[in-house]
Design goal:
It is a single chain. Helix content is 22%, strand content 29%. Helix 1 packs antiparallel against helix 3 and helix 3 packs parallel to helix 4. Strand 36 and strand 37 form a beta hairpin. It starts with 6 loop residues before the first helix and ends in a 5-residue tail after the last strand. The longest helix is centred in the N-terminal third of the chain and has 15 residues. Strands 1-2-3-4-6-8-9-13-14 form a 9-stranded mixed beta sheet. Strands 15-42-41-40-39 form a 5-stranded antiparallel beta sheet. It is α+β, with helices and mostly antiparallel strands. The protein contains 16 helices and 43 strands.
Length: 712
């Protein structure tokens, strides 16, 4: 066995290397040698701490050569830190890190390095045991490289919003992950990424601080089993890394940071932690005992039943947000999860592969009682294979040019019979039944308007002009294609005859404030509904006296829109800031309240539609970058679809409108605006059954025509 180079000898070699390169030895390196010798004399683990931010260009080459010598020395580990701005360029720092790869123990850096540096680190991996990264400029985290030795990962105070599909795929020994004070918000993609960590035991998206008047010391676990589990987790993480934890929160000791474990807590949420309203998490934590305050909370912590969802989704997790997970907590999580969430579509209990579903179909398994049963199981298998649905824009929308100007969509609809066609409208464009801001109404015949699918605008050829409706915002045709209704920034609704082109009647003062949307039912040509900011939704029948609605149903806030379920059994109402309810069409009684957490914004306009026939509803709001998918029969949440977009810059999209695809299960389209100020709105297709990296789905098979069909 080869002799290891002693630390004193290593120091001498470093001084010689400095002479060779004509530079003075770096004092921080000499101090590191002194500290290592001191640890050796006290029979402690011999670890050197390299402060890279104190390394200048003249120091680089001697230190680089020294690092190669360290791999065969008494030095047992190297801690590499960058705690302030670094004078070395990224490639020099990366070379130093790679040169000590065999002995690398801790990497403690902040995000002063560029994109290329982090992409190299995250894609190639490191051999360190602890990685602490602050101030990252990445919004989508995708650490896909091999980190086989890593057991502690600290990503606090970064602007990370979500995870890539390959993130955490090669971290077999990671047991502690902290992501406090990030911007992560999506339960589904977060849990899917975390499930790739087979050894994960401790997870933090926030820190619970004890504020009990009677005691400043957190309670220990009540059972010996819990205590052994907790002590084991602490001792493994603590090792020699207490300094790292102290940097994370100077107000907490390591014991306090890791040991706030009593779940019987009355929760007092600090308003400054998160803007807007937060759901009451008391039921998830317990209702008696100590008082805790949440600090450094990421937005994901504000999701309703966040703790329940995480405990149920991560069966090996032992500590969440400093609170130990006990058997009673898991039992409660299982029960609450089943009451509020659908694990898979159509109540499927466990994941099956698509291949397995197809095999059962080919062998004519008794499980398949109908084509519908097979289709539903196939949907569940495909959705269960990835938490990241495919998103892509419909190309012709954002790049349509009309006399040199770019047309930005304002509203859109699927063709009712042809799955390859979609119509959209702008504030000054026309096609199909369309209305525009100047009040004009026209009917277009697509067959006559264009003989090609590549046409971007249409002239008045093949159109019929109707009487104006002032300040028009919404039009809708009845089930026989003989009549349509128009509404706008007024309290009136107008009825038009499509065959003659005449306005038949104006129904005045149907609401106390202007009418946002008017909708005919899908099967009864005389039944229609209106929604208004006066907080009322009303059902009307053209065969009865138009001065009196069939009934009125009220919301707590102004109603943005209303629509009928495909079979007309229900009315889906959407009021400002996520007040989404389902009513019985027959008499307006409440059938379901989808109980979506409000943001507290009076400008958060919410719109909801049906998807997969009557099976699911989709709901989105203009101040939020996600679409909620809920079961229309139970109200349980199936999934939140986070609208993340990868272009040259990572950008979030906000929901202006949306529609479920009437021809494709678990497909929808979303009219989205972007955080980039220069961006125009565009229509994005979402396929929940295809993984985001499925490039074969990039062509959606939709042809688009400009129009102006507004209203929801």
């Amino acid at each position: 066995m080869a002799m290891l180079t002693e630390i004193a000898t290593l120091e001498e070699k470093y001084i010689e290397l400095c002479k060779k390169h004509g530079t003075v030895p770096n004092t921080s390196i000499l101090s590191a040698f002194f500290e290592a010798e001191d640890k050796k004399s006290r029979n402690q683990r011999c670890v050197m701490n390299l402060l890279v931010d104190r390394v200048m260009y003249d120091d680089f080459h001697p230190i680089l050569e020294l690092c190669s010598e360290m791999n065969a020395s008494e030095v047992e580990g190297i801690d590499l830190s960058v705690r302030s701005s670094c004078s070395l360029e990224d490639q020099y720092v990366l070379s130093l890190i790679r040169s000590v790869d065999q002995k690398l123990r801790l990497v403690d850096v902040h995000g002063c390095f560029g994109t290329t540096f982090w992409r190299d680190v995250f894609s190639q991996g490191l051999s360190c045991e602890v990685l602490n990264v602050r101030s990252l400029h990445f919004r989508k985290l995708n650490i896909a490289g091999e980190f086989t030795q890593l057991h502690t990962l600290i990503l606090d105070s970064n602007r990370v919003t979500g995870f890539g599909e390959s993130c955490f795929s090669a971290m077999p020994n990671l047991s502690f992950l902290s992501m406090c004070d990030t911007v992560v918000s999506d339960l589904w993609t977060a849990s899917a990424a975390l499930l790739k960590l087979p050894s994960l035991e401790v997870l933090r998206f926030q820190i619970w601080i004890c504020c009990s008047e009677s005691s400043s010391t957190p309670l220990k676990p009540q059972s010996s089993t819990d205590e052994n589990m907790f002590d084991e987790s602490n001792s493994r993480i603590e090792a020699d890394f207490s300094g790292v934890f102290e940097q994370m929160d100077p107000d907490l000791t390591l014991e306090e940071t890791l040991s706030m474990d009593d779940l019987n807590a009355e929760v007092f949420m600090r308003e400054k932690v998160r803007k807007g309203k937060m759901p009451d998490q008391t039921n998830d934590l317990g209702d008696v005992g100590l008082k805790y305050i949440s600090t450094k909370a990421s937005p994901i912590c504000s999701k309703k039943h966040y703790r329940i969802y995480m405990i149920n989704s991560l069966p090996k997790l032992k500590v969440l947000d400093n609170l130990a997970i006990r058997k009673s907590d898991r039992d409660r999580a299982t029960e609450t999860y089943s009451e509020n969430f659908e694990h898979l579509p159509y109540k499927r209990k466990s994941k099956e592969s698509v291949v397995r579903v197809l095999e059962k179909r080919e062998t004519r398994s008794s499980k398949w009682k109908s084509q519908s049963s097979y289709t539903r199981s196939l949907c569940a298998a495909r959705m269960g294979s990835s938490a990241w649905p495919l998103l892509h824009s419909i190309p012709s929308f954002s790049r349509v040019q009309d006399e040199g100007r770019s047309l930005s969509p304002r509203q859109f609809e699927y063709h009712p019979l042809d799955p390859s066609l979609m119509v959209y409208g702008t504030l000054d464009g026309e096609v199909v039944i369309a209305g525009s801001a100047n009040g004009s109404l026209k009917l277009y015949d697509i067959q006559k308007a264009s003989s090609t699918l590549n046409a971007t605008t249409h002239t008045a050829s093949g159109s019929v002009t109707f009487d104006d409706f002032d300040q028009l915002t919404s039009v809708h045709v009845n089930s026989t294609d003989k009549l349509f209704l128009a509404s706008g920034y007024s309290k009136d609704v107008a009825l038009y005859d499509i065959g003659s082109g005449t306005r038949l009647q104006v129904f005045a003062n149907m609401h106390q404030e202007h009418i946002n949307v008017v909708k005919f039912s899908n099967h009864s040509p005389s039944i229609f509904a209106t929604s208004s900011f006066d907080k009322d939704v009303k059902l009307w029948d053209l065969r009865q006296d138009p001065s009196q609605p069939c009934y009125t149903a009220s919301s707590n806030k102004g109603n943005v829109m209303v629509c009928f379920s495909p079979d007309d059994r229900y009315l889906l109402t959407s009021a400002v800031d996520n007040e989404v309810r389902q009513l019985l069409t027959v008499d307006g009684r409440l059938h379901l309240n989808f109980d979506i957490v409000p943001t507290g914004s009076s400008m958060n306009y919410t719109r909801s539609y049906y998807m997969n026939g009557n099976d699911y509803i989709i709901s989105g709001s203009c101040d939020e970058s996600m679409v909620r998918v809920c079961c229309a029969q139970t109200g349980r949440r199936l999934r939140d679809v986070s609208l993340e977009w990868n272009g040259s810059e990572f950008s979030m999209m906000f929901v202006q409108s949306l529609r479920g695809d009437p021809f494709r299960d678990f497909n929808m389209s979303v009219l989205a605006t972007y955080t980039r100020p220069s961006s125009v709105s565009e229509i994005v297709k979402v396929n929940m059954l295809a993984p985001r990296d499925n490039i074969e789905e990039q062509s959606c098979g939709l042809h688009c025509y400009p129009s102006n069909s507004m209203g929801g």
